[in-house]
Design brief:
The structure is a single chain. By secondary structure, the protein is of the alpha+beta class. It has three domains: 125 residues, Rossmann fold; 71 residues, Dna Ligase, domain 1 (2-Layer Sandwich), CATH 3.30.1490.20; 137 residues, ATP-grasp fold, B domain (D-amino Acid Aminotransferase, Chain A, domain 1, 2-Layer Sandwich), CATH 3.30.470.20. Helix content is 33%, strand content 22%. Strands 12, 13, 14, 15, 16 and 17 form a six-stranded antiparallel sheet that branches. A four-stranded mixed sheet has the order 3-2-1-7, with helices on both faces. A four-stranded antiparallel sheet has the order 8-11-9-10, with helices on both faces. The chain is globular, with a radius of gyration of 23 Å. The N and C termini lie far apart (57 Å).
């Protein structure tokens, strides 16, 4: 009998709507595969909603639907007593019906879900789940930590600086001078914990006013900022990786754009979006790179995946300098939007097989973790006489 899978999506992230799209793709695919599915939608304000109707994209596409205001989705509450090795939601009222989730498929993007927060909750319940664990999710979602890890592992990445809101408020002029003196221009300013190009800005020359404005925009979305050197004559290259110990790299995707960066509109809106595989004119698969460079990028993607401790699936983005013919590892996305299913299809793996494989990897990761001992017997408590602490 197949496990009941809970698909978790939404949440209070600027990438909320993208998460809904990924969640609906996963739900539809799981149903095609014959899995019992429990859609779990978390609103922007943090309410948890359950209901079969939440597995239909048309509900969210209808601006008048407003599921967060429909009380029928509020009827289930988490049964803490029963939620051991599973998550059990029980309908309110006497003898309320229980719904048990045996495996979680998080489809979040950005903060409050892709960053290790929901993964930590699944760990506490002892629930198997798809994708990266807590440390890998947290590090991969922090662009500064990711680049620090890559730099320390001698993986080529563009030069960068990072700072927090408190640093900016205490000495913005000092930081501006550091950026102007230590980095080659142009530079990109990024919130470290967001994806989908939200809050990202390019500063083309040493314009302190423009730099300050772009930093303020980024700080609107995050408390930590990354400023990195740009690559002017660039190919934007993406490689997906899947696996736990044995890793598989996808073919490479080259994203085509005419602006300063591949922005949110190009990724998700214009002509169906590059990131969702809808805008075929906005991508080249496989990327226009020779076999040697392609193999080197795929190997580096696996290396980045390993040093961060990723599991299940992740996407690694690269910048290829067409003039110097060098490539730079740039960012890691621990839960690619729509699973990047279009790139896996181009690599010979259909969406149904991709989702099935991710479930198998989740179960494998869970069994491996169960083989490790996490408890330790000690006599500390029995040594406390009279139940008192101190001398």
């Amino acid at each position: 009998m197949k496990k009941t899978i809970g698909v978790f999506f939404g949440s209070g992230s600027p990438e909320h709507d993208v998460s809904i799209i990924t969640g609906q793709l996963v739900i539809a695919t799981l149903k095609q595969l014959g899995y019992p599915v429990v859609p779990v939608y978390i609103t922007k304000t943090g309410k948890w909603l359950l209901g079969e109707d939440l597995g239909a994209l048309k509900l969210f596409a209808d601006p008048n639907a407003k599921p967060e205001e429909n009380k029928k989705y509020w009827e289930y509450i988490l049964d803490m007593e029963e939620s051991v090795g599973k998550m059990v939601f029980r309908k309110k009222g006497f003898m309320g019906k229980a719904v048990a989730i045996n495996l979680a498929f998080p489809a979040f993007h950005g903060s409050f879900g892709e960053d290790g927060t929901i993964q930590g909750l699944f760990e506490m319940f002892g629930l198997p789940y798809v994708g990266c664990g807590v440390p890998a999710s947290a590090m991969a979602m922090d662009k500064a930590l990711t680049k620090i890890m890559m730099r320390d592992a001698d993986i080529s990445t563009t030069k960068f600086l990072w700072f927090g809101r408190a640093d900016w408020e205490a000495g913005r002029q000092t930081l501006i001078e550091r950026i102007k003196n230590e980095l080659a221009w142009p530079v990109f300013v990024k919130p470290v914990h967001l994806g989908s190009s939200i809050g990202i800005g390019k500063v083309k020359d040493k314009d302190a006013q423009d730099l300050e404005f772009k930093i303020e925009v980024a700080l609107h979305y995050d408390n930590k900022i990354l400023v990195e050197e740009g690559v002017e004559d660039v190919l934007d290259v993406t490689c997906c990786v899947m696996g736990n110990e044995e890793l598989t790299a996808s073919v490479l995707q080259e994203s085509v754009f005419n602006k300063d960066l591949l922005d949110f509109e190009d990724k998700y809106l214009n002509d169906g979006g590059v990131q969702t595989g809808g805008n075929l004119s906005g991508m080249v698969i496989p990327a226009r790179l020779d076999a040697k460079t392609t193999a080197a990028i795929q190997a580096t993607a696996k290396q980045v995946y390993r040093i961060l401790g990723c599991a299940g699936i992740s996407r690694v983005d690269f910048l290829y300098d067409k003039q110097s013919q060098k490539f730079y590892a740039n960012e890691v996305n621990p839960m690619p939007g729509t699973l990047y299913n279009h790139l896996w299809k181009a690599s010979g793996l259909e969406t149904e097989s991709l989702v099935e494989k991710l479930i198998q990897l989740a179960e494998q990761k869970f069994e491996q973790k169960r083989a490790v001992t996490y408890t330790f017997e000690s006599s500390i408590l029995s040594q406390l006489k009279g139940g008192k602490l101190g001398g």
